[in-house]
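Q: What residues go here?
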């Protein structure tokens, strides 16, 4: 599997990225949630990565373990052995979700499960840890399956990406603001880097179409989130479940070719209906 070649393929359908796996019946960022995304035919699974006190790499979104494991500790203060012994709350954790028998997975567990099965969008919470994640991916033979994500807001960001990520030949996804008064500076940085894929933050869907016209000449694919908590301009999963044409359909029509969602099964069904 080669993620870069997949993103660059002009004939592919819109990609479905499952946010933290399919977690309605399993803990988010858990191996069963990831397996469910694979079995559902998702193209990509988004996973959050943090580092332990002794350098282990684990799958967790929050700054603390409170929501998902019920303990108010930062993962960076615990050893790999301590983290590996923790069990997770079901679904998205917190109050009202029971504890399961599922363990907090390591990055190596993730790579073993997903090798040659699905692409991985890795949200590494501390970007200084990304070189360690790349090294792990290379060691385990999955570097062609992963992408790394980061904002391009300054010349320092651009320099860091060029130094820490680009030389390793892994896919990098830039996050850029479009349409706002300060967006031109970010777009200038984006086109200096010219990554294969860009996550867009927007106020008007018309701005996506404008960026797409410019980006497609360089082969840059566009990614959008419809997650309720981070979506833009009302283009949310909740709205898409009521009217998928008005949300997912309009995004695709504007030039989006990768969508991250908490409703990946519904998005896959919608894409199938569009193909007739």
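A:
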């Amino acid at each position: 599997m080669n993620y870069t070649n997949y993103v660059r393929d002009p004939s592919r359908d819109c990609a479905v990225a499952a946010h933290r796996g399919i977690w309605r019946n399993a803990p988010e960022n858990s191996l069963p949630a990831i397996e469910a995304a694979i079995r559902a035919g998702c193209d990509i699974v988004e996973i959050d990565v943090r580092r332990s006190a002794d350098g282990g790499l684990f799958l967790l979104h929050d700054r603390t373990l409170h929501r998902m494991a019920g303990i108010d500790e930062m993962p960076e203060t615990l050893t790999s052995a301590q983290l590996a012994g923790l069990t997770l709350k079901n679904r998205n954790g917190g109050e009202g979700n029971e504890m399961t028998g599922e363990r907090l997975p390591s990055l190596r567990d993730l790579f073993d499960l997903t090798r040659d099965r699905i692409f991985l969008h890795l949200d590494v919470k501390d970007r200084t840890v990304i070189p360690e994640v790349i090294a792990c991916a290379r060691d385990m033979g999955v570097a062609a399956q992963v992408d790394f994500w980061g904002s391009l807001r300054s010349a320092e960001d651009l320099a860091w990406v060029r130094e820490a990520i680009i030389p390793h030949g892994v896919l990098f996804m830039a996050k850029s603001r479009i349409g706002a008064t300060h967006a031109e500076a970010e777009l200038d940085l984006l086109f200096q880097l010219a990554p294969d894929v860009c996550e867009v933050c927007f106020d008007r869907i018309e701005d996506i179409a404008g960026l797409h016209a410019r980006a497609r000449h360089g082969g840059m694919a566009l990614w959008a989130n419809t997650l309720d908590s981070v979506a833009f301009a009302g283009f949310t999963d909740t709205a898409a479940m009521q009217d998928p044409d008005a949300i997912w359909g309009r995004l695709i029509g504007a030039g989006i070719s990768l969508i991250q969602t908490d409703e990946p099964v519904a998005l896959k069904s919608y894409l199938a209906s569009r193909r007739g």
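A: Context that may help when evaluating the design: The CA atoms of residues 174 and 198 lie 5 Å apart. The first strand starts at residue 15 and ends at 19.
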